[in-house]
Design a protein that fits this description.
By secondary structure, the protein is an alpha+beta fold. Helix 1 runs parallel beside helix 8, helix 4 packs across helix 5 and helix 6 packs across helix 7.
């Protein structure tokens, strides 16, 4: 008999709340549960902790959080809700949006009680749609301050690495990268280069192990967990949910050290297991054609475990056909390289197999890929000229540095002295490519893209070249020309278990599966098909982890943020 159908057996261990997954949402929930006086355990399938949060840029999009308020960046509740309403277009229940907005500040206040939790505002990194009512051109994203992971002690070797570290231990924040990308073009970029050189030499002398982005965030949260005495079990795979006779989830079955264990959650179980990024069967079943190949950048352990077990209990699913899409270049060694800043550089166009532009190249990555998938432009081609290669970094290749030979050998990049020859190599009509580039060059000289509006949004301009009339537009005219093959990648899937405003998992008829909570990419996205700004994946994961833990502790009422919101509405 399945453990899900048999809640009568003896328990090997008992806790008030059992959390499955050690990313930002799971850790935030554990800290909240501890603050509420609950005993809590985190189990992690991987041999390293941090989940996809550790692999990410580490941005957190939670309006009115303490870091923003300390900088005088206060929002009215009405402006935040208006922005989210316009983004989600009615696809997300109002109660979920209310919970996110109202409890977000309190969630951050709670985790910031730990001395380890220190953040800064990435000022200027705009919301992804700042032109919408309620959007903010200066942005609402914060990230963790850089952290020396030697302080983790024995746990340092169990932390999931990310790629936000350069040669010789160079560490950079999102703000650093913004400036470094313009090292060949601006004084701020040159200063950033000098700072980078100093950091390398400083690290060599001081033997620090500096981390930034998602890795710094997870390291800081792990230190807070250690201070609180919260256990985190690695290499522990959840294999089933245990339910009582009334269908309430009472615990989980895991496999640890090759043996099954039954873990009771007296107040419930929180699933924070990520999406189905690396489950090819689920990708084939749910994702649209063109997005099914596994070019996902989430943790390898994200195979839909929580989603599948929740569905087995009758949970409703939503947004299963969508993902946190990211245009990407495949590295010859097999890794996937996301393209964020690269799509904002001026001297380039992205074209379809017909040799034509099909969207604003510099648009937010989810929107770019939505347009790519809708038009069937998989793959497409990133076409640039020699000055682009000399001036700007691309796909982790420094400005002016030679493109590794393996990129050419595997058909990832092509090079030619003329656009005609380049078109022939990549199999697009030469006349169409020449016409596209000629038209784009007219737009570049005028400083306005009437076709797709590239450079109109503050988001587009953030990674552009500030020396130009329009930071995102410049002529493509200097041979040789290059074309990189662009794949549809993703940071994780968006679809998952439908939850209410308390993070409780719901059945298709709207009834609650008692004792079962979900957050992060295990739950259906509170952002709907959109993306509010940098960190709009981690932000909701933290907030709904906090909400779940409070509900499990019997604290489902208004927190400080919700109380303030009620006062504003009154």
């Amino acid at each position: 008999m399945s453990a899900a159908a048999d809640g009568s057996g003896a328990w090997d261990h008992e806790y008030d709340l059992v959390i499955v997954g050690s990313g930002g949402g799971g850790m935030a929930a554990a800290l909240t549960a501890h603050e509420e006086g609950l005993s809590v355990l985190i189990v992690e399938k991987g041999k390293k902790f941090g989940g996809s949060t550790a692999l990410s840029g580490g941005g957190i999009w939670i309006p009115n959080n303490p870091t923003l308020r300390a900088r005088g960046h206060d929002d009215t509740r009405a402006s935040i809700r208006r922005y989210l309403d316009l983004l989600t277009e009615g696809r997300v229940p109002a109660a979920r949006l209310d919970a996110y907005v109202d409890h977000g500040p309190a969630a951050m206040e709670l985790i910031c009680k730990s001395k380890w939790m220190q953040f800064f505002w990435t000022k200027g990194y705009a919301d992804y749609h700042p032109e919408l009512e309620g959007g903010r051109p200066l942005g609402r994203s914060i990230e963790a301050k850089p952290f020396d992971t030697r302080k983790l002690g024995e746990d340092e070797k169990y932390q999931r690495p990310n790629n936000m570290k350069g040669p010789l231990g160079l560490w950079i924040t999102a703000k650093d990268y913004h400036d470094l990308a313009m090292a060949k073009r601006t004084w701020a970029g040159r200063r950033a280069s000098m700072v980078a050189a100093w950091r390398v030499s400083s690290n060599l002398v001081r033997r620090r192990h500096m981390s930034t982005g998602g890795r710094a965030l997870v390291a800081r949260m792990r230190m807070a967990l250690k201070d609180a005495g919260i256990p985190l079990w690695l290499k522990t795979t959840m294999t089933d949910l245990v339910t009582g006779e009334d269908g309430t989830v009472t615990g989980i079955v895991v496999e640890r050290d090759g043996a099954p264990l039954r873990l009771r959650g007296r107040r419930g179980v929180l699933l924070a297991t990520g999406g189905f990024d690396h489950n090819q069967k689920m990708r084939d079943a749910y994702l649209p054609e063109g997005g099914r190949a596994d070019f996902a950048m989430g943790a390898r352990e994200n195979t839909g475990d929580g989603i599948r077990l929740g569905e087995r209990l009758g949970a409703a699913l939503d947004f299963m056909d969508d993902a946190w899409w990211m245009p990407a270049v495949r590295h010859p060694a097999g890794a996937v390289i996301p393209l964020v800043s690269e799509r904002a550089i001026p001297r380039m166009v992205i074209v379809s197999a017909e040799g034509k532009r099909f969207t604003n190249e510099a648009s937010p990555y989810v929107n770019f890929v939505h347009d790519q998938l809708e038009g069937g432009h998989v793959p497409c081609w990133f076409v640039m000229d020699a000055k682009t290669r000399a001036r700007y970094p691309f796909a982790q290749i420094l400005p002016g540095a030679p493109i590794p030979k393996a990129f050419y050998e595997q058909g990832i990049v092509f090079k030619a002295d003329t656009l005609d020859d380049l078109a022939k190599q990549i199999g697009v009509p030469a006349d169409a490519l020449n016409e596209t580039v000629a038209k784009f060059n007219e737009y570049a000289r005028a400083g306005k893209d009437p076709e797709f509006g590239r450079g109109d949004s503050a988001y587009d301009r953030y990674y552009g070249d500030p020396n130009l009339k329009n930071p995102n537009l410049d002529v493509v005219e200097s041979a040789p020309y290059y074309a990189f093959r662009l794949e549809v990648g993703d940071l994780g899937t968006k679809g998952g278990l439908v939850c209410d405003e308390h993070s409780r998992v719901l059945r298709a008829d709207g009834s609650v599966i008692g004792g079962l909570y979900a957050t992060g990419n295990t739950s259906a996205s509170v952002m709907g098909n959109e993306y509010a700004g940098p960190g709009a994946t981690i932000g909701p994961s933290i907030v709904f982890g906090y909400i779940a833990a409070r509900h499990a502790a019997g604290r489902a009422g208004a927190g400080a943020g919700a109380a303030a919101a009620e006062a504003e509405r009154a």
